[in-house]
Design goal:
Length: 324
């Protein structure tokens, strides 16, 4: 980014990833007062319903951002996606069209939007890389979310080809950490297991049920790590081609291993059982971070068990205030 005035608008700034970025920026400011020259604005749905074009443009008119990190989306775990594919498609199509059009209209210099490794084709060769986004239908469980997310890449290419805009996207693997959505109905697996195990311990249960077989594999990234990578992307990544932001392939873990790590962090002494009447979703979506590793060689990811421990501790300390 250049020396001129910089105003970064973070849509979805009240969520898991947005709050992670906020925390990284606050830490930076403690260490280096020079970062004060960037003004960061974190917006949630209370500031503007981004499904609405007029509200979206009013937000851009108010803050006149020079840069945008676009995180806002209808987001949810496997079971929420399975039940709401139409809503995921329509809401996210509207949000993305409005935010990118407003970014064009208000002459934003750079936008970093957010895809996800779960939008890749279901039938694919592994490891998945950035060239494969549009290579076949996504998994049937989350086609609404997946197709809407894929269209961000189409919009980015269109705005670049027709108007010369620098609108790019990143592709995170599964994220978890403080400020996640811990609801019983719409959460992803890690916050779901953290919350449900806390409930089980409060009830004095001797068994704990993990949904599905526990065998699916996932790459999980800590929200504070993905936050650092978003900030780095905004400042240093200058291509409109998507960039996978993921932990290494060898750090992929099974759902059962994740459940065991949560059990250890919670100090739960009961037995974990698997409810195979519930869906497993995609077996795996192993993504390569080779491109990231070439561009940002020395990035260190927080070890999985440490990140789980910190998240469980945060949840216990903040249970009264979190999204349940
Ligand atoms: P999150 O915690 O659920 O946060 C979603 C954010 O979007 C919130 O700030 C929410 O605002 C905002 N939002 C939702 N609907 C909106 C609307 N109609 N108008 C304005 N704002 C709206 O989700 P997250 O996990 O941080 O996700 C951030 C981005 O990362 C998303 O684009 C998601 O697709 C992507 N991603 C997430 C994961 C993951 O595992 N979590 C993995 C890959 C990619 P309020 O809370 O104020 O309503
Ligand atoms: P995905 O990575 O996009 O599939 O979404 P999730 O974060 O929801 O992870 C889904 C995987 O975790 C599936 O294999 C589920 O069977 C498994 N899982 C186990 N228990 C739970 C739970 O309580 N909630 C959720 N969302 N998934 C669970």
């Amino acid at each position: 980014m250049g020396p001129e005035e910089i105003v970064v608008l973070v849509t979805g700034g009240s969520g898991l990833v947005g709050q992670g970025i906020k925390s990284i920026i606050e830490d930076e400011r403690q260490l280096d007062p020079n970062t004060q020259k960037e003004q960061w604005i974190f917006c949630g749905s209370k500031d503007a319903d981004l499904r609405n074009k007029t509200e979206t443009e009013a937000l851009f008119e108010k803050y006149k951002p020079t840069h945008v990190i676009h995180l806002a989306a209808m987001v949810g775990g496997l079971f929420h996606n399975m039940a709401h594919n139409l809503d995921f498609f329509r809401d996210n199509m509207s949000i993305n069209d409005n935010v990118l059009y407003a970014s064009y209209k208000y002459k934003v210099k750079k936008v970093v939007s957010c895809l996800s490794t779960c939008i890749f084709p279901d039938k694919v060769t592994y490891p998945i890389d950035e060239t494969m986004v549009h290579n076949g239908p996504p998994h049937t469980s989350n086609y609404g979310y997946s197709y809407a997310k894929r269209m961000i890449d189409i919009l980015n290419r269109g705005y670049h080809d027709q108007h010369g805009c620098k609108f790019t996207s990143v592709i995170p693997c599964n994220v978890f950490g403080p400020h996640d959505n811990f609801s019983l109905t719409s959460s992803h697996v890690i916050p779901a297991l953290i919350r449900r195990m806390d409930d089980a311990m409060n009830n004095g249960d001797s068994t704990f049920s993990v949904w599905g077989s526990g065998t699916p594999l996932r790459q999980f990234i800590y929200s504070l790590d993905i936050a650092k990578l978003f900030v780095w992307t905004l400042r240093h990544y200058d291509s409109i081609e998507p960039l996978i932001l993921s932990v290494d392939e060898e750090d992929e873990v099974s759902i059962s291993k994740a459940a065991e790590a949560i059990k250890k962090a919670h100090g739960f002494t009961g037995e974990i059982i698997y409810d195979t009447s519930k869906a497993d979703g995609q077996y795996k979506k192993t993504a390569s971070n080779k491109k990231l590793r070439l561009l940002y060689r020395d990035f260190t990811f927080t070890p999985f068990e440490q990140a789980i421990h910190e998240t469980v501790t945060w949840f216990k300390e903040n249970r009264e205030h979190v999204r349940l």
